[in-house]
Write a sequence for this structure.
């Protein structure tokens, strides 16, 4: 069985792929452009990919293709209709990175709420050494138990963030289409008005595009901490940037961008030197444990397919 891994670099070059190699004749590419894809998919029976797009334009060249394995939960880069019509099975991986994403969410929120970057800079700049005072307690920060934490999206990731926030003593507000008894579920406007920390964990769709916009930002408390580890376009990036510059937002954490990587014309470029902003390069999902778990799940999906099973099948 010929297996091609089209963009292993997006997963990291430190993974153990021995399980995949046991399944067939494996060819590994660091990255694959859309122009290179046509040639590289031509002889493959199984494709393993992350970001490469398989469309009705290039899929006809994959005459031998039987299975597509997406190393992610999202599958918008693969034309499922074409695959279904032509008998090509497609699998994804779900739940593999929950703990990793939750970890970064909590790290960002705690750091920003506690003003850690500002205090760190105060010491490293030499100002602490020069000041002659044994401590410093400005800027002001509060205990978590005094804060209200708004969780937008209460799936596996949002649910775990809510649980940790609750354990820390926060009042937890949740925005969820189907309310649950475990948390105080409210509408989006109420969550914006009453939360001191807001973390976003919702997929991107027509209903969540620019969910955090100028109007919603105006409803938020002055000094709110805002964290996005979901999808970049859930934020109106221009409006969020302006809210930081006007000090409406007291702390901003962003791991995802409307165009990735962050472009030179991104509004966020105006915020690169601020101590109240944390930017990370779409790495929330990427703890080594999560990435290896993803590959191990792909191996299981391929084995299932060869045995006639339908594990993690989309089509």
């Amino acid at each position: 069985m010929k297996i091609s891994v089209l963009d292993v670099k997006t997963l990291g070059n430190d993974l153990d792929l021995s399980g995949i190699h046991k399944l067939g004749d494996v060819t590994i590419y660091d990255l694959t452009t859309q122009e290179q894809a046509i040639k590289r998919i031509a002889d493959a029976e199984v494709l393993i990919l992350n970001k490469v797009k398989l469309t009705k334009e290039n899929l006809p060249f994959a005459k031998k293709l039987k299975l597509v394995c997406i190393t992610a939960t999202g599958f918008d880069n693969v034309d499922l209709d074409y695959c279904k019509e032509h008998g090509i099975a497609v699998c994804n991986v779900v739940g593999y990175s929950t703990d990793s994403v939750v970890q970064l969410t909590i790290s960002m929120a705690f750091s920003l709420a506690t003003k850690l970057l500002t205090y760190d800079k105060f010491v490293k700049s030499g100002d602490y050494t020069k000041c002659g005072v044994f401590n410093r307690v400005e800027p002001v920060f509060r205990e978590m138990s005094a804060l209200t934490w708004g969780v937008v999206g209460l799936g596996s990731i949002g649910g775990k963030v809510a649980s940790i926030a609750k354990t820390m003593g926060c009042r937890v507000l949740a925005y969820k289409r189907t309310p649950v008894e475990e948390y105080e579920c409210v509408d989006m406007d109420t969550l914006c008005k009453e939360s001191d920390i807001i973390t976003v964990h919702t997929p991107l769709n027509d209903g969540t595009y620019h969910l955090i916009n100028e109007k919603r930002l105006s409803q938020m408390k002055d000094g709110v901490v805002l964290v996005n580890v979901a999808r970049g376009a859930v934020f109106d990036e221009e409006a969020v940037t302006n809210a930081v510059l006007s000090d409406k937002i007291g702390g901003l954490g962003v791991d995802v961008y409307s165009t990735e990587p962050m472009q030179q014309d991104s509004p966020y470029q105006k915020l690169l030197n601020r101590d109240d902003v944390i930017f990370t390069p779409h790495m929330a999902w990427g703890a080594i444990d999560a990435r290896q778990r993803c590959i191990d799940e792909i191996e299981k999906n391929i084995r299932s397919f060869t045995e006639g099973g339908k594990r993690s099948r989309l089509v």
